[in-house]
Amino acid sequence: MRLDNTRTSGQARTRRGLALLIATGAGLGSLLLGTVPAHANATTKHVAADGMSVQFKTSDSSHKVRGNITFTVNADGNWRIDANATNPRPAGRNVHWVCDLSWDASDVRHSTGKKWVPRKSTRTLTAAAYDPFVQADFATIAARGTADCDIVIG
Predict the structure, then answer these.
(1) Model confidence over 64-87: pLDDT tens digits?
(2) Which of 61, 63, 69, 74 is most buried, with most CB under 10 Å away?
(3) How far apart are alpha carbons 100 and 105 in whole angstroms?
(4) Whole-structure pTM over 0.70, yes or no?
(5) Strand partners of residue 33
(6) Cα-Cα-Cα-Cα dihedral of 114, 124, 129, 43, to 10°?
(7) Contact 54, 67 (CB under 8 A)
(8) DSSP per residue, 103-151
(9) Could you give the CA distance from residue 20 to residue 48 in angstroms, rounded to a whole number?
(10) In this predicted structure, what is the pLDDT of residue 123?
């Protein structure tokens, strides 16, 4: 008595199953490769002529919300974020910016507060404060520091 009624031999069923497995694997592989996360644009670094401040500029997008940012650190330890966010979507979104400043083996993170960006509009986001680590290592930051700034939705 046969357990199935497909009227195919065991060898044909095995080949069909193997072909289905290969096709599924290829489909999943292309899906995974197609969903590699996007990276922010390259960050430019500009040290002021007097050497007392460093500006990092970039742009980023997430879930179709995009914006530009300037992250400035000063020799006196003060930092400032000046950014904007444009929301072309039909629904409003909460947005904030996060900047990771790294130098040698150290890093700090600074961010703006969340701001509601209504549908099809642009909002400005700013934040500023003092950071003793920036002041203590400013010469190293000016020489070898990097910043990665990302727009965050939610």
Answers:
(1) 999 999 999 999 999 999 999 999
(2) 69
(3) 13
(4) yes
(5) none
(6) 100
(7) no
(8) ETTEEEEEEPPPEEE-TTEEEEEEEEEE-HHHHHTHHHHHHH-EEEEEE
(9) 61
(10) 97
Length of the chain: 154
- Specify the amino acid at residue 55: Q
Spell 45-72 as b/e; 16+ CB within 10 A means b.
beeeeeeebbbbbbbbbbeebbbbbbbb
CB–CB of 128/78 below 8 Å?
A: yes
Q: What is the DSSP letter of 5?
A: -
Q: Which amino acid is at 17?
A: G
Give the C-alpha separation, 93 to 77, whole Å: 32
CB-based burial, 100-124: b 16+ in 10 Å, e otherwise: ebebeeeebebbbeebebeeeeebe
Range 20-29 average pLDDT: 54
**Measured distance CA(66)–CA(72) in Å, rounded:** 20
Contact, 59 vs 42, CB < 8 A?
Answer: no
